[in-house]
Task: inverse folding
């Protein structure tokens, strides 16, 4: 049984998740705080207890894109800790956060426990699968369907983060997440709002009809 609500927590037993949540130092962070920057040395991993972050990757030409959103029960910064390479993306908080900041050596020792190693491997493979799914969606699905799937993922993340059915995400960030233009996302959100599926206020998106989103997502 998992003690967490998603991410790595869903792959660990309750005692293992509790043990992970005792590592390092407990820290609170406000929204729009940068945990680390792409290219930084990977000397710590971050275990998310509450809140949500976005992972952004930039290219030398000056463009960037959101790779994913992570919420409670997940970890970020772990890959650089495990392989010794630089940070592959920039991670910033979307909401107020509570995290455990875990030194790299402590995180690696924990992951090297036999039962945790197997769980972490499954978790890492699932993240790769999800990346493949999202790339395929961008290549072949219409904007409305991509948006519905992204909103469902964000709904799950928001629920895990304690925000229930609402989350804050700028429309430009949402556009980057699904590989669409901001104008296309604005139009699609307007249609969903008119249909009573969502409500929007400034950066906040509230999910009103999860079943309708599932039907649109296919």
Result:
């Amino acid at each position: 049984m998992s003690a967490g609500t998603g991410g790595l927590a869903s792959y660990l037993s309750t005692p293992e998740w509790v043990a992970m949540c005792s590592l390092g130092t407990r820290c609170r962070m406000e929204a729009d705080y940068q945990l680390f920057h792409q290219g930084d040395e990977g000397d710590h991993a971050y275990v998310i207890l509450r809140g949500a972050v976005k992972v952004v990757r930039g290219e030398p030409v000056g463009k960037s894109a959101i790779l994913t959103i992570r919420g409670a029960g997940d970890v970020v910064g772990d890959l650089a800790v495990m392989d010794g390479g630089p940070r592959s993306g920039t991670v910033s908080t979307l909401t107020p956060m509570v995290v455990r900041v875990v030194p790299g050596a402590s995180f690696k020792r924990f992951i090297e426990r036999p039962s945790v190693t197997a769980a972490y491997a499954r978790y890492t493979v699932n993240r790769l699968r999800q990346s493949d799914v999202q790339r395929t969606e961008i290549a072949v699905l219409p904007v409305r369907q991509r948006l519905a799937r992204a909103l469902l993922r964000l709904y799950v993340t928001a629920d895990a983060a304690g925000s229930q059915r609402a989350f804050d995400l700028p429309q430009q960030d949402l556009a980057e997440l699904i590989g669409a233009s901001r104008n296309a996302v604005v139009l699609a959100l307007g249609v969903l709002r008119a249909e009573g599926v969502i409500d929007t206020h400034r950066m906040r998106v509230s999910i009103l009809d999860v079943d309708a989103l599932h039907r649109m997502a296919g």
Remarks:
- Confidence is low (pLDDT under 50) at residues 1-5.
- The chain has two domains: 8-135, 141-217.
